[in-house]
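Sample A.
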Amino acid sequence: MEKRLVLAVLLMFATVVVVNLLFPPAPRPPRTPAPAAPETVQVAEPRPPARAEPVAVPTAAAPAPAETVEVVSPLYRVRFLSRGASLVSAELLRYRSLADATKGVAVQLVKPGEELLTARWVVNSDTLNLSAAPFAASARRLELTTGDEPQPLEFTYAHPAGSFDARVSYLFYPDRYTVDVRGALEGLDGGWWLVPLGSGVHNNEANEKENLGSLALVVSGPAGIQSRRLREIAPGSRLALDGPHWWVAVRDKYFLVALLALDEATRLGGALAWGGAERNGARVVSTVAVSRDGRFQYRLYLGPQDYGRLAALGHGLQNVNPYGWAFLRPIIRPLAGTITALLLWTRDTLRVGYGWILILFGFAVRAVLFPLYQSTMRSQMRMAELQPRLQELQSRYRAEPARLQQELMKLYREKGMTPLTPLTSGCLPMLLPFPFLIALFFVFRDTIEFRGAAFLWMPDLSRPDPIYVIPVLMGLSMFFLSWFGQRAVPQTNPQMKMLTYVMPVMMTIFFLALPAGLNLYYLAMNVASLPQQLYLNRERRKLMAQAAPEPPRRAPRR
C-alpha cells in the first residue's frame, strides 16, 4: 500500500508539471473590436486639462536626418535616435544570446526596426505625434564606468511657431538597469504621455518557440498582478488593462522591459496592446499622466529578470514571471528563492560550476534526511512487531470504537510510541525530497542565473541533456535503489516486484524533456542513497532477527 501511495504521488507530481509545461495557465484576455491606429487612441483622462487643442507639428518635404546617441555602462549599451527621441537598441553586455542567428553576441532587448519610448502626447481624442520631430540631444555619447555618478541625457524640441517646447531627460546609473525619466511640455498641460514598448522582447534563446510563447504583457494594478500572453491577442484585436498601475512590463522568459511609477502621485495609466500580423507579438503602449504644469516622470527598467534586483524595486515586480500555477506559488516561491540563494552562495564560496554544486546539493539533501529515514525504518519494524496485537484488539473491540481507541493508546504507551508513529513510519519521509524536486524544476525553468550554465558535455543545465546520458543514468540509479530496497524485505506481491522495473522506465521517459540540471540533482541524490540503503538493509535484517521469536526448544531425550 505504501508503494502504491508513492506511485500515486509520483504520478500526481508528473501530471502537475507536464500540464504546466504543455498548457501554461493564462487568464483569458478581454477582446474588443480593433481600434484606430495608436496615434488616435482615446485614453481616459481623470481631470480635464486646461488646454486640449491639437497642436500641429510641421513636417518637411524630406524627413529630418536622425542622429544616433549612445550610452554605454558596464551593464548595458543603449542607442537613441534624435528623431522622435526613440530608443532603438538596448544591449545587455553581461548576457550572451543563445539564439542560432546571434549566438555569442550581447543580448538585445529591442526587435530590429522597432522604436520604443517615441514621443507622443495625448489628451482626449487628440494626439501630438512627435515621432518625426527633430529633437536635439545634450550629448552624442555618454560613457559610464563603475563608481561614476549618474549622468543625464536630455532631448529637447522647440516648435517652430513657438507653440510649445518638449523636453525628455534620462538619468543613467553605471551599476543599475534602471533609468529615471522626467519630461516637460512647456505650453501644454494635462493629458497623457504615451510610451510605446514595442511588440515584445527580441528573441535571444536557443528554443525560440518556447521563448516566443512566454512573451507577455504584465501589469500591477487595481486587480493585482495580471499577465496576458501576447500570442493570445489575435490580429486586429485590442487588449486594454485599466490603471492606475504601479508598473507595466513586457517580458519573455528571462528579460524584461518595464515602466515603473516613482510614487503614488505619479502612478501609470492604462496599458494597451494591439494584435498585429506577427502571431507571437503585439504592439504595447503604456501611459504616464501629465500634470497641469506639463510635467511627467517614470522609471524605466531594461534588464534581466534578476529576482534580487526586481524585488528591490518594490511593488512585487519580482513576480512579473511567477513560478507555476497560483495554488503552488505560496509554497514554491519561498522554497525556490531559498534554494536559488543557497546555490548562488555556494557558487560564490566554492568558486565551482553549477553542475558540481548540484551534485553536492543532492548529496547534502540525502545526508540531511538520512536520520529521518533511519528513524522511519525503526518505526516500521516496531509497527510490524505490534501488528498481531493491533489485529487482535481490532477484532475484539470492533463494535466498541471508543474502547478500541483507549486500548490502542494504552498499547502505544506500553511500547513508548505515539499515535503519530504510523504516519511517520509510512510514506511521509519518503515524500520530503519532492518539494525540493518541484522547486528545482521551476528554478531551472525560469531563473536567469542558470541560463546557459554549462557542465561537461551539456551546454545548458536549464535545457534537456542533448544526448540523454544523465536521464538514463538517473533511471538506472532509481532501479538499483529500488532493487536494493526490496532485497531487505521479502516480497511476495508480483505487482510490487513489477514496480521495480516499470517505475524507473516511466521516470526516465518523463525526465528526458526536463532540464539537465534537475536530472543531475536527482541522479546525485539517488547515488548518495545507495550506500545509505545498503546500511539500512543491514540494520533492518539485524532488527528483524532480534524481533523474531525464538524457535521452540526440543525436549531432552531420556
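Sample B.
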Amino acid sequence: MPRMTPWRVIAEALAAEGVERVYGLPGNPLHLVADLMEHTEIDIVLLRHEHSGVACAFADSRISRRPAVAFGNPGPGITNMATGLLEASSASLPVIVLTNGTPLESDGKGAFQELDSVAHLAPVTKWATRIVDPATTPWVMARAFDVAVNGRPGPVFIDVPTDIGLREVDMPAYRPSLGRHRSRPAADAVAAAAELVGAAKRPLIWCGSGAYASGAAEEVLACAEHLGAPVFTTPGGRGIIAEDHGLSLGQTGLYFTEAGKSYFDSADLVIAVGTRLEEFSTGGWSYWPRDAKFIQIDIDPQAIALNQRPDVALVGDAVLALADLRDGLAPLDAAARAARRDEIAALKEPYLARVDAECADLRRPIRARQVVAAINRIFGHDTIMVHENGGADLWSYYWPYYKVLDVGDDIPMGEQTAMGMGIIGTIAAKLARPDKQVVCVSGDAAMQMAMMEMATAAERRCGVTWVVLNNQALGWPQYIQVLTGKQEVATNFHVGTDFVSVARAQGCEGRRIEDPADVDAGLTAARDANKKGIPFVLDIAIEKHDYPPHFVMHHEANFSS
C-alpha cells in the first residue's frame, strides 16, 4: 500500500467522484489546497467568507444535481458554515463540507479555535464525522458521497484534525462511492394509486424538490399530459416543468395565484411527488382541497404522513414511481383529457392577459412585477433564476409574473430562506453552467448581507446580473408592522447603500434605475455586459409594500389589526 496523508487521499477521492470545483478559503493551504493543486485538476474557487463557500456549493449542487464541495477552517470557520449546511439540509441537497480541525493530540486542552465540531454540526447535517485514524480516510470519503446522495439527499460534514490530516501512513486505494440507488414502490401500492387516479375527475400533480432532484421532469410531464392534469410546484420543485407549458399552474401555499388556487381548491385528487409539504408550501397547512384523495410519492419513508396522511403512499424514487404509476393506468378517454386541458386554459388565459397588462403599466414608483416580467422578456430562454429571500423579491417566485422557461433553470433556497445565499450562489451557478445566463433577484437587505462576493464574480469573470429591488427597508417585517398598526421601528434603512459604487469598486458594473421607462434598457445593458464576462448590478428603486395578491390576502388574514 502506498504511504499518503489523509488530505492527499481526500483530494484524489474528490477527483475520482467527479468533483470539478471546491469552494471556500484556506487557513493553512497545506490542508487540502496543496494536494488539490499538485495531484488533481479540480478548480479551487476562493471566496471571501466560509459561509460563501457553502452557499456556492448549495447552488452548484442544485443546478448540477450532483454533490458539491466546500471547505473552511476550524472554530469560527465551522460556525460560519453552519447556516449554509442548515439550508442545504432543508433543501435536501448533497453538499459536502471539509475542514481542518484542531489537533487530536490537544483535544480538550484549550487548543486554538477548539470546538466540538461534530456536535455543533450534527443537527444541521445528514452525517457529521471526524477522522481519528488516517487509514479510515478512503472509507469516510466514499461513505460521505453515498450518504449525501441516497435516500433523502442531504449535507455531510467531515472534520480532519490538523495532526491527523498531515500524517503519512500506509493507505488503502480509494474506491469510489456506489452512487445513487433508486428503488421502486410496492406493486400493491401502485395498483391502489392507479385505482384512485382512474376514479378522479379533477386530479393535480404537485412537485417538490424531490421530483427535481430525481430528474423526474420527463415522467412528470408524461403523467400530466396523459391525464390532462395541471402541474403545481413548491419553490423547491420549480423547474420540473417549463412554466409556459399549458399544464403549468404555478406554485402553492404562500405562492398561489388566482388561476392556480381556483383549480387547486376544486381538485378531487392530489398526487404529491417529492415534497414534505412544509409550511410555506401549504400556507401553514391551511390550503388543501376539501375531500380530495391524496397519493404521496417520496423516496424517504419518514416523509410519508409527516403532516398530511395519504390515502396511498408510494415509497420510492420519483422517476420509477411515476413510470410504474403511468404503466398501471387504464387508457384515458381523449375527450376527458381534452376537457381538462380546456378548463385549465379557460382559467389561465384571461389571468395571463391581466398579468401582462399589469406588468406593462409603467407607473411610478417602479413596481417589482414590471421588473421580473422584463427579465423574462429580455433574458429569455436559457436563463437560470436564482432567488433571494425577502418581501420585494418574492415577485420572482410568483408565476406568471416570472416564468421559468426551461426545465432545471431555477435555484430557490430551502425552507430556511437564509438571506444572502442566493446572491452568493449566483456565482456558482454560472461556474457550473457557463452556457446559461444567470440572474438573481434580491432585495436591498439581502444584498447588504452578501455584497462582498461581487469581487469574486469579477475575479472569475462570471457574467451574472444581480437585480436589487430596493425599498431601503426590511420590507416584509415592516409590512407586518403596517398591518398590525405598529410603528415602523428597526425596519427602515435611513442611510442607503450605493450598490452601483460598491459594484464598481469590486470590478463589476452597475446602474441605478428610478424611472420605469429605463428598466428595459438597464436589463439589456446588464445582459450585454454579461456576455463579455462582466458582472452587473441593477439597483432599482421600487414602490414599498407592493406584493402579489395572494401574499396580501394571506397576510391580511393573519395580521390585520
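B remarks: The longest strand covers residues 95-101. The two ends are 72 Å apart (CA to CA).
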